[in-house]
Design a protein that fits this description.
Length: 169
C-alpha cells in the first residue's frame, strides 16, 4: 500500500479487538516467563485484518532501551510490508503506550491503537500524557483503551508482586 493513499481502517469490532488482545496477552506471558521481562505484548494487524507484526518487551534481554513490545511489533510489521509506513494498521498492546511508543505510532502512520491496561505512571495515550492526540501532529491515531484491561493489569500487578515476594491478586 502506498503511504500517500488514504488509509482504509477496519471498523472497530469488540470481538476482533478482544481476539487480538488475547494474542497480545499470550505474548506478554511469554515475555514474563521466558525472558523475565515486564509482561507487555503487542500485535500489529494490517488494514486487511492480517497479523503482520508481533512483539513483547525485550529491553532487558536485548540491552536496548527502545525494545518495548510496541517497537518490536512495529519493526516486524515494517519488514513484513517493506515499508516504514503502516497505513491503516491497528496496534494491539496490553499496556497503554509510553511517549516513545506513542510517537512511533504517529510516525508509522498507524491508524488505530487498542490497549488493555492504563499506565498510571507513563501512559501517553490519555491517562498521564496525551502525546498521541496533540493537534500539531500531521497524523491522527484513533485510541481505544481498556480492552481486557482488568486482565492485562492483573498480570502486570502479579509480575511485580511476585518480584517482591508478595501474594498474587
Amino acid at each position: 500500500m502506498d503511504a500517500r493513499q488514504p488509509a482504509r481502517i477496519l471498523p472497530a469490532d469488540p470481538e476482533v479487538d478482544e481476539r487480538h488482545m488475547r494474542h497480545a496477552l499470550q505474548l506478554a506471558e511469554r515475555a514474563g516467563k521466558e525472558f523475565d521481562e515486564i509482561p507487555v505484548g503487542a500485535v500489529v494487524v494490517s488494514a486487511e485484518g492480517k497479523v503482520i507484526g508481533e512483539g513483547w518487551n525485550r529491553n532487558i534481554h536485548d540491552h536496548d532501551p527502545s525494545a518495548h513490545a510496541e517497537i518490536m511489533a512495529l519493526r516486524q510489521a515494517g519488514q513484513a510490508l517493506s515499508n516504514h509506513r503502516l497505513v491503516g494498521a491497528t496496534l494491539y498492546v496490553t499496556l497503554e503506550p509510553c511517549a516513545m511508543c506513542a510517537m512511533a505510532l504517529v510516525h508509522a502512520r498507524v491508524a488505530r491503537v487498542v490497549y488493555g491496561a492504563d499506565d498510571p505512571k507513563t501512559g501517553a495515550c490519555g491517562s498521564v500524557f496525551d502525546v498521541i492526540a496533540d493537534p500539531r501532529h500531521n497524523h491522527r491515531v484513533q485510541v481505544q483503551g481498556g480492552v481486557l484491561g482488568e486482565e492485562a493489569g492483573r498480570r502486570l500487578t502479579n509480575y511485580f508482586r511476585a518480584k517482591r515476594g508478595k501474594p498474587l491478586v
